[in-house]
Amino acid sequence: MSASAEATVLITHAVGLHARPSVKFTKLAKSFAAEVEVAVAANGPWLDAKSIVKVMAAKAPKGTMLHIRAKGDGAGAAVEALVDLVQRDFDEDADHARSA
Amino acid sequence: MRLEGIPASAGYAEGPLFDLDRPRALYSAKASTAEEREALELAISKAIGRLTALAEAADADAAGILEFHIAMLEDDALSGPALAAIGAGRPADSAWRAALDAEIAGYDASDQDYFRARAADLRDIRDQVLRALSEDGEATAPLGAILYGEDIAPTRFLETDWSAGGGIALRAGSTASHVAMLARSRGVPMVVGLGAAAESATGLALLDAERGGIVFSPSPAEIEAFRESACSFADRQGAAQTFLTQPAKTRSGTAVRVQVNIAYPSDVDGIDIATCDGVGLMRTEFLFGKTLPDEETQYHAYRKVLEWAGNKPVTIRTIDAGGDKPIAGFTVEETNPFLGLRGIRLSLKRRDIFRVQIRALLRAAIHGNLKVMFPMIATADEYDQAAALFAEEQAGLVARGLANKLPPLGIMVEVPSVALMPEAFANVAFFSIGSNDLTQYVMAAARDNSAVAHLNSVHHPAVLRLISAVVDFGRDKGIPVSLCGDAGGDPAAIPALLSAGLRDLSVAPAQLAMAKAAIADVAV
Q1: Which of B32, B136, B251, B391 lies 20 to 30 Å from B326, alpha-carbon distance?
Q2: Are B151 and B170 in contact (CB under 8 A)?
């Protein structure tokens, strides 16, 4: 039986899981061999975390509880790294995107 | 001809018009499904190549956007539906267009401003590939041109050489778009929401992205006035920045409240709340865009702004549709719309739609310091009817156990009947003078008709006398009076407004610094 992991994290970035953060998120997901999925509700639908098209289409705003799950090689490390990225606000300066 | 719009990035541009909406070259269908598939894959990789080259030369902001486009194009989930359609016999161009249009529709339907604005990115991605498919080497705009069209793609903005000036004028568009954000950070003048199309998008145009307007085929007098405004803008802009972070004070030390006017909830993302005294006017008609927003969408939009403002006041104006702001499914066709069913008149006629907004406002009120005002009030009876609807809806919310609060209810002073007899409105919570409409009704000079623009002046003594009378009445009765028309942010009008007794102005965010600088120059 292969490894699996699951976690939930609150999106605190001002405009949510939007363009640049989703680029970072999917790039990071792709760096793991494990199959990684995300959902904006506990009961799914589960989306491929390596597809920016799918992740953006979830249109998760600030305040969304993001569910992340992975299975296969490095599942635990993948979930941990993605949760950490979301908690770091995607390393984005919140005002960066909208300098007036 | 002059069209009015919403400033998305302040500044002035004078130059030839460049039509963004010229028809594109056609794609020629291939002989087999395999060739169609190959054509699409080649076009996608060509588009990625072009974007990568652009990204290498771009600054961090622009590169971030381009990387997003590249990542989307590299994702098989994007091309999957199009390749499937090709397999079913569709040519590459229409397969791609249909697949992307389906994605775009998903973004257009989002109740989040930010995600809705991403539809423009998806359109750009779509058109990048269509362009590569048809090998349409689009003519580039001449240096210093004003790009005019329905909307503009971020890549088009990035490919344009702005070193010699130029600007952007859009019939639709959004102040929250990527392009608007780029334009603000690069100082490229941009106006959105110009509405109706010009007869022909050629020749010289003057783009005023400070107040929000464009003049097509200007007269020599218009050009001269425009150049004066442009020069003074540049001078003022340089000098004004030091005033932005300070509370506004006149030369004699009189404090003046300066609030901001906003049209979209996302407008506040670019404003530091410490630099203003609140929101003097939050328009709600633009929220209504193409469709009528439901209660939840409105509630979240209002709540966002209230939470941003903290304990500073946010004055939200109930929907002011009609006049020059038609909304499909709501406003009616009229021969003389400025004198017809607009503002509160329309809301009282379409109570089903008005009640939805009222419930959203009552619920949002608990999240901050909300004030609500009604536009186009002409009689006390209209105010009483609107206030009664608030009371009814509040009772309904209480009965359903939903948290709510009745905000102070005020009125716009823009119809002369109110300015002439403010005593008929002694029971309202506040007055907000809408100087644009008050001026056009007092002077009988339409705002959108450049032939009578010389009459449309807030400086006319008749207009100033009415403003002064309302201020005096408010002071006597302890009813706050503010002004939220364009004149409030116009340094040339500010001395006269302060002399008329106003001490509370609401201005476009881009005019905040310059308005404070102008106030500091007045001795009252």
Answers
A1: B391
A2: yes
Here the ipTM equals: 0.82
Question: What's the mean pLDDT in B379-403?
Answer: 97
Closest-CA residue of chain B to A94: B269
* Residue B361 distance to chain A (closest CA, Å): 21
Rounded Cα distance, B197 and B214, in Å: 12
Is B495 an 8 Å CB contact of chain A?
Answer: no
Mean pLDDT computed over every residue of chain B: 89
Structure tokens belonging to residue B408 = 């102070």
Q: Which amino acid is at A18?
A: H
Residue with tokens 């999917």: A26
- pLDDT at residue B137, as a whole number: 45
Contact B103 A57 (CB under 8 A): yes
The angle at the Cα of A62, spanning B298 to B507, to the nearest 5 degrees, equals 55
Per residue, the 3-state secondary structure of B369-400, as one string, reads EEEEEECCCCCHHHHHHHHHHHHHHHHHHHHC
Q: How far apart are CA B13 and CA B189, in angstroms?
A: 7
* B222: enclosing H helix or E strand: helix B220-240
CB B386 within 8 A of CB B408: no
A83 shares contact with chain B (CB less than 8 Å): no
Instruction: Using CA coordinates, name the residue in chain B closest to A62.
Output: B112
- Between B68, B77, B269, which is nearest A23 by CB? B68
Q: Does the pLDDT at position A98 exceed 60?
A: no
Residue B60 has pLDDT above 80, yes or no: no
Residue by residue, DSSP assigns B465-478 as HHHHHHHHHHHHHT
d(CA B63, CA B78): 21
Is there a contact between B118 and A52 if contact means CB atoms under 8 Å apart? no
Closest CA to B471 of B479, B459, B463, B460: B479
Cβ-based contacts under 8 A for chains A and B: 70
Query: Does the active-site annotation cover A18?
Result: yes
* A30 touching B (Cβ < 8 Å): no
**Averaged confidence pLDDT in chain A:** 82
* Pairing, β B12-19 against β B146-149: parallel
What confidence category does residue B139 fall into, taking pLDDT thresholds of 50, 70 and 90?
low
Inter-residue contact B484 to B280 (CB < 8 Å): yes
Cβ–Cβ below 8 Å for A100 and B65 = no
pLDDT at A14: 78
Helix (H) / strand (E) containing B349: helix B344-349
Cα separations (Å) of B133 from B27, B30, B50? 6, 11, 13
Contacts of B62 in chain A (CB under 8 A): none
